[in-house]
Amino acid sequence: MSDFTPTERTKVRRLPDRGKYDAESVYGILDEAFICHVGFVVDGQPYVIPTGFGRVGDTLYIHGSAASRMLRTVSTRVPVCVTVTLVDGIVMARSGFHSSMNYRSVVIFATAKVVEAREEKLEALAAFSEQVMPGRWKELRETTDAELKGTIVLALPITEASAKVRTGPPKDDEADYALPLWAGVVPLKLTAGTPIADPRLPAGVPAPDYAAHYKR
Ligand SMILES: Cc1cc2nc3c(=O)[nH]c(=O)nc-3n(C[C@H](O)[C@H](O)[C@H](O)COP(=O)(O)OP(=O)(O)OC[C@H]3O[C@@H](n4cnc5c(N)ncnc54)[C@H](O)[C@@H]3O)c2cc1C
């Protein structure tokens, strides 16, 4: 995986020291996430639609119903901006002005290609499934031809991308450090609860390990 070259569009200008373009940072963030926001413009109106995604190498796959406006529009090779966000903590500073969040995020500019080939379509769906529920794809019943036909899969090349990362404590005004007000970071983490079996599950089917011990 090669690093990214900042472009006119991806050069982080606001707090540039938080910008990152190395493959490890960008792909690390993408692989920890499974939700992205897809931004596109139709008749001058911007839309930003949340959806799941999967990554294979330097391609990000999104998929869904052939009836989706988002997928139909993006499949016409319009410019797309995809963002992925991980929130790591709430930064409680001594002023509202300096209060912030610790985060890792990625912005990708691309135009999408419709995946037509059956094998690549299945590979993309497997990648999506594995990104959300690792270990499950091989146990699922096979996708039917009708399901495949009703599903649009789009491939977005991850070639023009930036990451931005904030870590650490608040950065307050020097005079404010003397205030008798607690300040610091409340870490946030996405955690899984105990799996709830489908009421229609036949008796005696245990939760697989990847569900019982699901973690991000
Ligand atoms: C969870 C979270 C909360 C945030 N809260 C705030 C907030 O309350 N107020 C605020 O002003 N900003 C916030 N940010 C930062 C915000 O995303 C922008 O970076 C910032 O507002 C500067 O925007 P800009 O358009 O001026 O960036 P510019 O520096 O002009 O952007 C230029 C290019 O840098 C890249 N870039 C910019 N921001 C990001 C990013 N976050 N991730 C990856 N690439 C990026 C893009 O490629 C972009 O096109 C938050 C970010 C996250 C992830």
Strand content: 25-35%
Please tell me the overall pLDDT: 97
Helix tally equals: 5
Unreliable segments of 5+ consecutive residues: none
Overall 3D geometry? globular
| Alpha carbon gap, first and last residue | 23 Å
Order of helices and strands: EHEEEEHEEEHHEEEH
Kindly provide the radius of gyration, computed on alpha-carbon positions and rounded to a whole number of angstroms: 20 Å
Largest sheet report: 7 strands, antiparallel
Hetero compounds: flavin-adenine dinucleotide
**Could you say which structural class the secondary elements and strand pairing correspond to?**
alpha+beta
| Proportion of helical residues | 10-25%
How many strands in all?
A: 11
Characterize this entry briefly.
With 216 residues, the protein is of the alpha+beta class.
Protein described:
The protein is α+β, with helices and mostly antiparallel strands and 216 residues long. Helix content is 19%, strand content 33%. Strand 2 (35-42) and strand 3 form a beta hairpin. The radius of gyration is 20 Å and the shape is globular. It binds flavin-adenine dinucleotide (FAD). The site of flavin-adenine dinucleotide (FAD) has 16 residues, from strand 6, strand 7 and strand 10. Flavin-adenine dinucleotide is lined by residues 9-14, 85, 87, 101, 103, 105-107, 162-164.
